[in-house]
């Protein structure tokens, strides 16, 4: 006999506890559903760069009672673009007239701060509804797409009405839904790091106007490479992203065709790739410290579908994309 799911909450299993997985979990919990999240890592060492919360994203977070301003979110107030020599090409102020067209604010947020907030809110016992059940260090070995069943390496199974695969770029769930369509490297990589504004401003080569301006997104660019910088952490920390051809960032002593998100970067290779850029860029890179990471850029063919049976994929599992 069929069960009328309109009369009870859905039981939802989500594979992956990144930004997409936890956001989906919190949204479903807010609507009264029972959610279980399965994550392969232990969250022992969480790192990451900053990210944009454009007004449409901010509006969704605020609907879930997650406010970027409470996790160090910095308002985007200005964009400044330079060429490789440090000549100012364009400035755009986001004043009251621009902001009046937005449904809410545009924030720049440290990914870890947002992730921690989503995790805390989803699993909190003080919110309405049943807390999200979060299981760490779980390796998925099998999925029944039509019955929304997940089997783990240790033999445990999770059953529900709906299964969401938020398991990232190398998604196990996607493979079950669409087969062998895989993401591919596009030949571009990013070196990224976080550095305090105080550290940058202590270096005389720093472009002080760009760093001191509150909420300024800054870019120095050449045709095939660029450095992007913008603040987070209550406007005290700069998120730096240096994009260049992967071949120039490849460490010959650590050759890999699959550079993971938290692989350590090589400052000397980065400085060599940007040797013709202005002193302000050199200063930013030389102050990268121990936080420097390298991250390969990927793309993927458009998938024929995102759903099968009682299962679907979301986030990078469904549509990885490169930073603009």
TrEMBL record:
Coiled-coil regions listed: none
Record-given protein name: FAD-binding domain-containing protein
Source organism, top-level taxon: Eukaryota
InterPro entries per record: FAD-bd, FAD-dep_Monooxygenase_BioMet, FAD/NAD-bd_sf
Gene3D superfamilies with a match to the protein in the record: FAD/NAD(P)-binding domain
Keywords recorded for this protein, A-Z: FAD, Flavoprotein, Monooxygenase, Oxidoreductase
Molecular function as annotated in GO: FAD binding; monooxygenase activity
Family that this chain belongs to: Belongs to the paxM FAD-dependent monooxygenase family.
Domain FAD-binding: 11-323
